[in-house]
Specification:
alpha+beta; Rossmann fold; two-stranded antiparallel ribbon; 5 helices; globular
Length: 135
């Protein structure tokens, strides 16, 4: 119901919602020039990738995540328009006890670092207050 209400609130306001759980870089490459893209969110993307890998008996390795992060930064940089990438800071709390949660936290942290390195601007929003970190 919550998702439906969000969709209804944006209806006829120029928003187009597209769900792409695994390959956002591929999707960005198909968007028309001049279009603003809001990708929400990288942590859900990584969760989807981690789940798919675990389900198929594989591991989402640091190397694969580095490659996918690089592809996303490259696609965003090539897009002729504004690309906003939303993520969560998951490394400020205690170290998770279970290995899968630690892997997730580490993959998100390194992805965030790679994305921030390739971004023109980076903001940290805490308590609704934006703090510009880069740009």
């Amino acid at each position: 119901m919550r998702i439906y209400r969000h969709q209804q609130a944006r209806e006829n306001k120029g928003w187009k919602t597209v769900e792409e759980p695994y390959a956002p870089a591929d999707l960005i490459a198909t968007v028309a020039a001049g279009t603003t893209i809001l990708l929400d969110c990288l942590t859900l993307w990584i969760s989807n990738l981690l789940y798919a890998a675990e389900k198929s008996g594989e591991k989402l390795t640091e190397e694969r995540m580095a490659r996918l992060s690089h592809e996303l930064v490259t696609a965003a940089g090539r897009h002729d328009g504004c690309v906003l990438l939303v993520t969560n800071e998951v490394g400020l709390g205690i170290v998770p006890e279970n290995p899968l949660a630690r892997t997730y936290r580490d993959l998100v942290g390194r992805c965030n670092q790679r994305i921030a390195a390739g971004a023109d601007q980076v903001y940290l929003v805490s308590c609704g207050l934006p703090l510009q970190l880069k740009g």
